[in-house]
Amino acid sequence: MIIRSKKGKILFVLHAHLPYVHHPDYENFMEERWLFEALTETYIPLIKIFKSLEKDKIPFKLTISFSPTLMEMLNLNDLREKYHKYLLNLIELTEKEIIRTKAEDHKTYHLAEHYRQELIEDLDIFYEEYNQNILKAFKEFKDKGYIEVITSNGTHGYLPFYRDYPEAIRAQIKSAVLTFKKYFGEYPIGMWLAECAYFKGLDKYLSDEDIRYFFLDTHGFTYADSKPRYGVYRPIITPNNVFVFARDPESSEQIWSSEVGYPGDSRYREFYRDIGYDREDDYIKPHIDPSGTRCNTGIKYYRITDKSLSLDKKEIYDLREARNAVKEHVKDFLCKKTSQIRKLSAILDEEETIIVAPFDAELFGHWWYEGPKFLEELFRQSYGSKYLDFSVPSEILQTVKKVQITYPGETSWGAGGYHDVWLNEKNDWIYKHIHEITERMKEKANIFKCPSSLQKRVLNQMMREVLLAQASDWPFIMTTGTTVEYAKNRVKCHINRFLDLDKMLEKRQVNEESLSFYEWIDDIFKNIDYTIFSSVQNKLIYLKLLHEGRIRTLPEKYFEIRWHARAGQGAKSASQFLTEAAEEAGKYSSSFPEYGAERSGAPMKAFNRIADVPIRIKSNIETPDVVVVIDDTLLKNPEVTSGLAEDKLLLVNTSRSIEEVRKLSGYKGRIGVIPATEIALEEIKRGIPNTVMIGALIRATDIVPLDAVKEKIKAAFSKKFSDEVVRANIRALERGYQEVKLSE
């Protein structure tokens, strides 16, 4: 018997992050070069390969996480201007190198010309094409459906170390969500936890902010409460309704491993041999830090050659050989992935194999010069493959029918797999102080209920300093022993600034000059709200007032919809689609599912809230305005109409009459019926009633303009389906709107 394996999916995930390094009081600051190098060697090269693939009509799918600190730095005008000068300076250096190497060696001469051309293209992309705003480029490719963009928590704080400070965790996640919305125009659906660090219960904070998925290292699944049946090759879902993807160890070894990974091939460029260290002082001085401290310029002429050789024994780098190596390695990688998928297909029964390959974005280009070309070649060679496709998490979640419910194990992706890198004898001294200011922040947020405008500025800046002190980068640097003094100074600096601001509040005497300086230099998260740190007390007050009947559970402007269906019938997708349409119509909206048993066909619920004001609540909907029933066999279950008042609406996908539905459900209020499945079969040739039900819902409630949903269908469906499919879905929507029967 021949077993035909299903196509596997590969999720390539890049995490782009840098700590917040901003020194506007200096014309040049060494550590700001971290951002400039990453722009030149990773972020802009990624844009280049995206443009190349799009030009050649090669489809590609990739997930990229931008940390909030990185997004904020990319938006600072002074850093943009400094980067512009940095590029011009490097171009000047390459021009000097072209003159110098022409008389020395034709190979280095051609490399110098190559670097000059690359830098001129970088300058054009950064300065001319995107007006110094490269996030705009990534948003464009996101909107075109090529990439999925997510974020990381606030300042990349190592969250397991703050499990006793829920306010700090909320602040880390909330600041990330708001920052992402600021730059990408919508809330993130996924989150890269800093250092992939997880502890049991962290997913509840993510769920509260409508985060639908995150990533972990392999052993997060290995040591889950219930061992995942399909290992790391299918997502799991936590009891708090957040999906989790885990890293495939084979893919990591093939690409990331310092011993056997592709980047160690002898033909690739040597990272540690740079003219910033090779050239004479007088020659190189205008192109390095003004202090004279030697540093990388990115102009490198040598290849790895042999890892055992000293740097002075390395051989000249050959671009052609390196490009051949890229093609060979991509072919090898795809061959290994194909073999892996075919083997796993026999084990995973009916389930689709999902291989998750997460990496630091800076591996591609900064550390591994040929990395961006590897990615480009990966999509080119895999185009049309019979065995694998590249995908993104949101596409996977749309097709999930069965999912195992469990908590993953506590983990990180650091050396040793747990917390040692961020807590050891080299850095443990910082946490006493960081926890102290975190506690003080909470106290001050609870004391100052109605601050003056000046006090509010102080409180918000105190919160910025707390979050910046919590960054995982500083203890990491202390462990690895790179720029240790800078890392120590940053932690001390943020702690001291916090204490200075705290003293101002204690004395009721604000030094506006100092406050303005702190706001200028730590210019991050302009929309920050210190009251996040008073959330526990606010919740207690809220519950007390609610119990006393002095407030309503929700503002009157919230419109709430509860969907009842069976897993696999599309209620979750319908709920999500309605939310997106509502947001495009200018409303605030949220959607989220609640799963019961993991098997296909089991009863499940999904929820929508739609409003004209921001939606602050995340709980399940108990007293809906509308209940939508996708499967009328659920009508006998009293849970379907639970909490549905008689002045609300029960909308059912059924061929039964209104009276039959009333008799089956026992509901005495307003009822709407529509044979949505039959209409869907007639119009779109598939028994998926979502579009028809949304049309009926709009007719019954007017909650979203019909035209807004039509435009959403065109925008969402035209990227993946033919014009006829788009028209068929619009017809189905219109028939739902026209043919629904509503009781008086």
UniProtKB/TrEMBL annotation:
Residue ranges occupied by any 1,4-alpha-glucan branching enzyme C-terminal domain in the UniProt entry: 433-533
Catalytic residue list: E195, D360
InterPro entries to which the protein is assigned, alphabetical: 57_glycoside_trans_central (IPR037090), BE_C (IPR015293), Branching_enz_MT3115-like (IPR040042), Glyco_hydro/deAcase_b/a-brl (IPR011330), Glyco_hydro_38_N_sf (IPR027291), Glyco_hydro_57/38_cen_sf (IPR028995), Glyco_hydro_57_N (IPR004300), PorC_KorC (IPR011894)
CDD domains: GH57N_AmyC_like
One Pfam family recorded for the sequence: BE_C
Binding-site positions, substrate: R247, G264, W413, D473
Domain Pyruvate/ketoisovalerate oxidoreductase catalytic: 567-738
Glycoside hydrolase family 57 N-terminal domain location: 12-301
GO biological process entries: alpha-glucan biosynthetic process
GO molecular-function term, one example from the UniProt record: 1,4-alpha-glucan branching enzyme activity
Signal peptide interval: none
Keyword Glycoprotein appears in the UniProt entry: no
CC annotations in GO: extracellular region
Keyword Oxidoreductase applies: yes
Keywords of the record: Carbohydrate metabolism, Oxidoreductase
Family the UniProt entry places it in: Belongs to the glycosyl hydrolase 57 family.
PANTHER family for the chain: 1,4-ALPHA-GLUCAN BRANCHING ENZYME RV3031-RELATED (PTHR41695), 1,4-ALPHA-GLUCAN BRANCHING ENZYME TK1436 (PTHR41695:SF1)
The protein's name: 1,4-alpha-glucan branching enzyme
Species name: Petrotoga sibirica
